[in-house]
Specification:
By secondary structure, the protein is of the alpha/beta class. The protein has helices at residues 16-31, 78-88, 103-110, 131-141, 152-159, 182-188, 210-219, 238-246, 264-273, 288-295, 308-311, 326-335, 339-355, 358-373, and strands at 4-7, 34-42, 66-71, 92-97, 117-121, 146-149, 167-169, 196-201, 226-231, 255-258, 276-279, 300-303, 318-321. The protein has two domains: 4-173 and 357-373, Rossmann fold (3-Layer(aba) Sandwich), CATH 3.40.50.2000; 182-355, Glycogen Phosphorylase B (Rossmann fold, 3-Layer(aba) Sandwich). It is built from 14 helices and 13 strands. The longest helix has 17 residues, at 339-355. It is elongated and about 65 Å long.
Length: 385
């Protein structure tokens, strides 16, 4: 049985990558294949993080076996991590990749050949990546021996530059959800019993198409009993323009918004109150929010882009629309007023979520590492002897 060393963000860091990495560590530990879990004491300097904070102690559980022993932007701490890896002597390293910000550390680790590296590729490069960021991504991924992806679009993007690497695709599991206390949650958010509430949740960045969503809601007839729940911290300077748009007459009274980071202790209310979720992305490699929504049994209205089409199936667990089309999006939202359709899609959402578990995800990763260790054709360029 392989022993895997997992290096990535966890408690007290917030965000989907930290939650996913923590859930993977717990699944590997339960299966007896986690040799070590190494997490940063600090991640981004304030200068490089445009949000309020990158920590939330409730965002993911604090695992007692997690070893906090380095800073992502503190290279003088990296030898301490390296020493722990040398002492552990794992069969393979597992590193999540989603941003060039972690690239210097990950190049440092994968260049030292402690063991072959398997990358869990959330994004093959940052959204809107500059040329240096794309080069940094290539430097990391070129040193990895195999890739675990969450969607076919990411797999295709990796197969072109790295055609002979072992690769697996497994959607992100939903994980656990809170207790669904719908009536109380809706009352706290001021939703009337007959209103269909559609949730747009998560960090708000330009590629997520929130402006298109607001225009779609504005085009719906005022008499329709539908409300948008818009929840998340705007990235950079988006907050000003979003608040200005929300204040216009065509949206007043139609949107319940929280334009800030919502701590984990408040997340349950938003999902419990919702009847459906909406992901109006202009581009996407995947979405942890989609997995979360499916876990809550929420139908999803989503743009037909990237990895979203791997988890949202039209007329099965949601409705797919062309990206950047407010009329098509408005029409899809209006369809959710059909109670029968919404109930059928909710059943599909629950069935979809049940197929993907963290145990199965961990097993897929173990099998992928096993292929590398068995001498599969795909070896990272920098890991070949």
């Amino acid at each position: 049985m392989s022993r895997l060393a997992l290096i990535g963000p966890s408690w007290p860091l917030r965000g989907g990558i930290a939650r996913a990495t923590t859930a993977l560590a717990a699944a590997l530990e339960a299966r007896g294949t986690l040799g070590g879990f190494f997490v940063p004491e600090r991640q981004y300097p304030k200068l490089l993080f445009p949000g309020e904070s990158d920590t939330d102690p409730d965002a993911c559980p604090r695992l007692e076996y997690a070893q906090r022993c380095f800073g992502v932007f503190e290279p003088w701490t990296w030898p301490q991590l390296a020493a722990r890896l040398r002492a552990l002597r794992p069969d393979a390293l597992v590193i999540p990749f989603w941003t060039a910000a972690w690239a210097p550390l990950e190049v440092f680790l994968t260049s030292r050949r402690y063991a072959p590296a398997v990358a869990v590729v959330h994004n093959p490069a940052d959204h809107g990546a500059t040329l240096p960021a794309r080069q940094a991504a290539r430097a990391v991924l070129g040193r990895c021996s195999a890739f675990l992806c969450h969607g076919r679009s990411v797999a295709a993007a990796l197969q072109e530059p790295f055609p002979n690497r072992p690769l697996a695709v497994h959607p992100l599991p939903s994980g656990s959800t809170g207790t669904r206390q719908r009536t109380g949650a809706r009352a706290r958010l001021g939703l009337s019993p007959g209103t269909v509430a559609v949730l747009c949740f998560g960090l708000i960045r330009p590629y997520k198409g929130v402006e298109v969503l607001l225009e779609a809601v504005a085009r719906l007839p005022h008499e329709l009993p539908i409300a948008l729940l818009l929840v998340g911290e705007p990235w950079g300077g988006l907050a000003v323009s979003l608040r200005r748009r929300l204040g216009r007459p065509d949206l007043v009274g139609r949107v319940v918004s929280r334009l800030r980071w919502v701590p984990e202790s408040e997340v349950t209310d938003w999902f419990a109150a919702a009847d459906a979720a909406v992901l109006p992305y202009l581009s996407a490699t995947g979405s942890a929010v989609a997995a979360q929504a499916l876990g809550w049994g929420l139908p999803i209205v989503a743009s037909a882009v990237g990895g979203l089409t791997d988890v949202v199936h039209n007329d099965v667990n949601g409705v797919l629309v062309p990206p950047g089309d407010p009329d098509a999006l408005a029409s899809a939202l209006a369809r959710l007023l059909d109670d029968h359709l919404r109930s059928r899609l909710a059943e599909g959402a629950r069935a979809t979520s049940a197929r993907w578990t963290w145990d199965g995800y961990a097993a897929e990763l173990e099998a992928l590492a096993g292929r590398v260790l068995a001498g599969d054709r795909g070896c990272g360029e920098e890991n070949r002897a």
